[in-house]
Every structure is written in structure tokens, then in C-alpha cells.
Amino acid sequence: MLRRAETAELAAIAALIARHPMQLLAMGEDWLAEIAADPANRVMVWDRDGFAGFAIIETAYPQVLTLPNLAVTKAGEGRSLIAAVLELAFAEMGAHRLFLDTVFDNQRALEAFRRAGFTEEGRLRQCWLRPDGLWADCIGMAILRDEWARKRSGDAAALAP
Length: 161
Fold this sequence. Notes:
- The chain is of the alpha+beta class.
- The protein is built from five helices and seven strands.
- The protein has one domain (2-159): 3-Layer(aba) Sandwich (Aminopeptidase).
- The longest helix has 15 residues, at 78-92.
């Protein structure tokens, strides 16, 4: 279940962010609290009988959302979390567009987002500072409301008996 994070859970989210090679996003609990305080944004917990991951959704402009961070604590949860985030962004938050970027060599993430319906929009040169001090390129990806709706309908049709 995807639900809003409680203040007490921000430390667990900050710790999970810190374990990933995203120094630009490892800004701690204060940063998360600031995002969560804005009603246009969402700091969400992926709850699978306990903390199993999180997603941060920010409103860049009306109906244009960004997904600056999403992570799970164990393999196999990513696909379900991404589907829940898409449902939240489009069905509940009224998004027209959801954008994200991920480091160019994170093939698991790139493939998961492609499977969910995201389209690669380009390369952002040297956008992530890694812990070793080297900058890495990112791949920008987005999904539009109509693409999500078609994918969602297609997935439902594929699952029908």
C-alpha cells in the first residue's frame, strides 16, 4: 500500500536515500520534511507489512510532476511501487506529465521505468555526483497521462480471463 509518510518515518527514508549513489539528493530529514509540508507534493511510504520503500513526488508546475526519488528495500517491489506511484500521480493528483531521471548505468531502473510506460527523453550530462567524486550522466524519462491510461487499459486487458 502506498500511503503518506509520517514524520517518524522520514529518518528511514533519509537512510535509504543515503545508501544510494545520489549525493545531490541525500539532503536528510529536514529536506524531506520541507517537501512533505507542501500540500502540492507527496512523500510516500511503500508499506508491505512494514516499511518497504518510498517515493517522493514534487509538483514542478500545475499538472507537471517530478519523481526525484524512489527506492525499495528489497528486490521485486519496484514494479508494484512504480504502478502505485503512477496511479497516485495521474488518478489522484491530476498530473498531465510525470518526469524523472536516473543514472545512465542503472539498467534495472531504466528497464523498470520503460516497462511501466516511461519514454526516454534525453541524456542530462553529468547530473549526479557519485560518492567517489565523479559526475555521472542521467537519462531523463517521462510518461504522459494518455500514455499511462493506454498502458493501464492494456495491462487490464492482458490480465482479463
